[in-house]
Each structure stands twice: as structure tokens, then as C-alpha cells.
Design goal:
The chain has 2 domains: about 1-175 and about 225-250, NAD(P)-binding Rossmann-like Domain (Rossmann fold, 3-Layer(aba) Sandwich); about 190-220 and about 255-325, UDP-galactose 4-epimerase, domain 1 (Alpha-Beta Complex), CATH 3.90.25.10. The longest helix is centred in the first third of the chain and has 21 residues, at about 85-105. The chain has helices at about 10-20, 55-65, 80-85, 85-105, 140-160, 190-200, 225-245, 260-270, 295-300, 310-325, and strands at about 1-5, 25-30, 45-50, 70-75, 110-120, 165-170, 170-175, 205-210, 220, 225, 250, 260, 275-280, 290. By secondary structure, it is of the alpha/beta class. Helix 2 (about 55-65) packs parallel to helix 4 and helix 6 crosses helix 10. It is globular and about 55 Å long. It binds uridine-5'-diphosphate (UDP). Uridine-5'-diphosphate binds near residues 189, 194, 206, 222 and 286. Keywords: Carbohydrate metabolism, Isomerase, NAD. Belongs to the NAD(P)-dependent epimerase/dehydratase family. One of its GO terms (biological process) is galactose metabolic process. Its EC number is 5.1.3.2.
Amino acid sequence: MKVLICGGAGYIGSHIVREFTSLSGYEIVIVDNLSKGHVESIPKGVTFEEADICDKKSIEAVFEKHKPGAVMHFCASIEVGESVIDPLKYYENNVTGTIYLLQTMQKYKVKYFIFSSTAAIFGNPETTPIADDAKSVPINPYGDSKLTVEKILGWCENAFDIRYVCLRYFNACGAHESGEIGEDHNPETHLIPLILQVALGRRPQIKIYGNDYDTRDGTCIRDYIHVTDLAHAHIKALEYLVKENKSQKFNLGSGEGYSVKEVIEAARKVTGHPIPAVVEGRRPGDPAVLIAGSKRAEEILGWTRKYKNVEDIVASAWKYHQAYPHGYAPK
Ligand code: UDP
């Protein structure tokens, strides 16, 4: 089967591409506009089309040329804080872009769609760990833009022959075990790479956004999931779609969380660096605790996690950061 991986040069997409390359029976085509993705992450021999999902003509040309059987969609703006400041950017990239992709799928009769959703659709959840069918009440435009797509997908399934899987990631992190690909955002806003930049001497200290949350040490708690474990869930989701021909939504979490202070402490152990930290005010749009169970993914997809410990996750990210201390392409 030919699988179009939109956003395949980005952080999560590149790790999925890497897992696919070790499987037989799939042909991968990466679509990426390289606004955030890195051409250096694309493995030799994998087809790459530079195109923007918000440019319908260029996306149609890719479908016309490659005739994919399934689409995985990772092109999105992903910063919670930025989404609060610039909501329209989020609705344009995340909702309008996805609509163009779905319209193109409808035109070319592509049936299977895997959507990169998020824990942020749940806002401040009523219960923890968050169940797969928990109520979705996002508290920032980023989460709302992803929830809007989840709703659109339900109506599309109803209206035309599309089957989808939504995968709600909690905090994707870590890097491929080879250290050859990893997390490189510009600007970087995510906790683990920022902490490791302190360990590398690129930043003097890590800022802790708020220590007055109702949590065990006052800092926000998140469910950190290794990107390679996430990649495996995508492949299982595609197998499920093809075999069962049913749409479904899965939370991908670990059932446990780590506070910001605990992640910093783990990084101190892994890197041997003191990693100075300073407490700042809360970041807008941040819920106190986000932890998910993955009951449905475990039961239906048979998904299991290899990385169960935050230190192992940080160690894998550290391997990449040491190999690429200034990211893929130092300027
Ligand atoms: N965070 C922090 N300092 C930073 C970056 C992030 O304290 O420099 C906190 C952030 O407020 C959140 C957690 O770390 O509670 C994880 O944030 P990240 O941006 O990595 O992921 P998100 O939870 O927003 O998807």
C-alpha cells in the first residue's frame, strides 16, 4: 500500500517514516512544506514531495502523481501558547489545511486517514487518567482546532466513504534509538529539548512556567510518550483501518505523569549537568495535569510501550541532542 505522510519531515512524522522503512508491504511518500520539517530527516530512497496542504493545487498534483491508498496527517501548528495569541493561524493551518486534504481524498477516492490529534482536546479533564471517551472541552485554540477536525471527520465518514483513526498524543518526546533523528523545532517551546539545550550550554537556565498549580510539587504534570512508541501506534492504526474498515479514536498515554520539576531532575541524572531552573509565571492555556490511559489502544490495537521510564526517554533525546547540538542544520 502507498501511504502519503503529510508532515513526514517533521518530528513525529519523521519517526513514523523511519519505522515504515523497516516494514515490507508499504511504499511511503512524504509531503512536507519544510516550514518546520527538516529535509535532513528524510531517509535515502524515500520519495519526497515539497508541497503545502493549504495549497490545494499542489496537493492535488501529489495525489494525481502518486495515487495513495492511505493518508497520515501531521501538518499542524502545535504551540499552545502561540495559539492563544494567534488563534486564526491555528484554525487556518490545522482546520482549513485538513479540509483541503480531505477534499482531495474525496476527489481521488482515498479511503483511509490517520489524524494526529492531541490531549489538548480535553482541556482541564474531569477525571484522570483521561479515558478514550472522556468529554472534550479544550481550553486553547490549538486543542479546539484539533477537536474541530475530529468532528469534521465524523461527518465526512457519514457523507462519503472515508474511514479514519484519530490518535490523541499526550506529550510526544524522545528520539529514535540511533540518535540520527530527533526533536528540532524553531523556535523550540517543548520542555525536554529546552532542558537539553541548557545541558548543552545553549541556554543559561530552564524556565518553569508556574509552581502554584494544584499538583504534588506545584508544577504541571504531563504524560510523556516516546515518539517511537507513538510511531508503532500509527502503523497498528493503519493495519486496523484496513482490516476492520471502522473509524476509531484512541488516547495514547501511559497512565502516569511527571511534573516539570521531575523531568528536570531526570535530565540532571541523564546528562550529569546541573541544569539551573528559574520559576516564572504560568503559561497561558496550560492545564495543571494531563494524563491518559490507553485502554482502547491496548485492547483494540494491541499497542504496548517500549519506553516506560522518563529517564530512558530523556536519554534517547540526549543522544540526538549530543549528535546534533545545534539541530539538523546549524546556521
Ligand atoms: N514548560 C516549562 N518550561 C518550558 C517549556 C514548558 O515549564 O520552557 C512546561 C509547560 O508549561 C507544560 C510542560 O512543561 O506544563 C510541557 O510543555 P510542552 O510545551 O513541552 O508540551 P505541552 O504540554 O504544551 O504539549
